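pinned: reference chain
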Amino acid sequence: MGSEGAIEAQVMRKVMWRLLPFLMLCYLMAFIDRTNVGMASLQMNADIGLSSTVFGFGASLFFVAYFLMEVPSNLMLQKVGARYWIARIMISWGLVSTAMSLVWNAESFYVMRFALGIAEAGFFPGIILYLTYWMPPGYRGRTLALFAFAIPVSSFIGSPLSGLLLAMDGIAGLRGWQWLFILEGLPTVMLGVACLKMLTDRPDDASWLDDEEKAWLNSALAATGSSKPLVHGSAWRLAVTPAFWAMVIACSGASAAGSMLSVWQPQLLKSFGLTDLQTGLVNSIPYGIASVAMILWGRNSDRTNERRWHTALPLMLITLGAVGTFVVTGLVPTVMLLTFVLVGAYCFKGPFWSMASTWLSGSTAAAGIAAINATSNLIGGGLMVNAYGFIHEATGSYMLALMPLAGLTLMSAAAVIYVGRTAKKQPVPLRV
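pinned: its structure tokens
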């Protein structure tokens, strides 16, 4: 069937088009359902009596449940296969997200946010693991950036959409925030059912690849080059491996930036006197810019075969943006600096997860990817989202509440630079 380069291009084109658009759509809904609480808070907090501290604590419970269930979920995916397990995850979190429309006080809000974390746990690391079954190392930077592209796009689309849904206030006797949860939760259930048809567990199971294409892909996946894992052996050794904790600290900074702004940015922007719809539209601007930047950054990381600085520099940009919001005034410069924060948070993802997947041995990949994501979400999402609410309630300042983020991302960048020096050069990437 022609040259090696021709079959490579043919196979990877098929794999990319078969898996990525659908997985990106699924992840788009994951982040809409996870973060729409930020837009819902514009009405919901007053309706059910949530203070900043109570709302921050309730929002953070998602990450606590996520932390507890993430590793077990990824191990189950490895055992039963991505097709069934990802379908289960999506159907359950779609139902819980829809049921968020029923919360009536702080306690019910706590329960439902915790339940949402349990339901969604394992989705992101499960997809990262799943993509390693299909993407040779040289394709992972751009692939993971394309997949993670759904995160900022979810807010770019979801913020104006949520603003419009809030305007449905009063229809059929429901508040706008209730319509928001219902109409953004039910499509996820339908996508979960579609997973059963769209996903294939492994290349050998793919009816849409012929035997020669399967053979090439399996060979490319087995060719790991000269890189040596930094974390190997039993999954239980993760907790005593310095490289693992360096990856956790690195990921925590980006996780904190994305989580804090998804929950609190709508309220920060509305404090400038915007309406709900205007808040949704302005809130989407940083996410739109971050969407484009992360694709270009991920492709450049693959093209140059460089991961360490492509991971560290975005973390430094988060620090710059967070500190900058404290020293500027006005809506326009604030939006510009929040854009720096979100560009950094999302440009980080492709290079980091590509790098991390090569630092983990095959025996620890499932547990390792899940443990890194879960622990960093607990620190970055659970702790930092809580801290933001506490500082804001104590000081009245949305900007001062971002200062812990600046310190964390500096530590994250230092962790990447340090541990990256101990890793061998990554394998030469395959070319598209």
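why pinned: Residues 11-201+231-420 form a domain with the Growth Hormone; Chain: A; fold (CATH 1.20.1250.20). Residues 424-432 have pLDDT under 50 and may be disordered.
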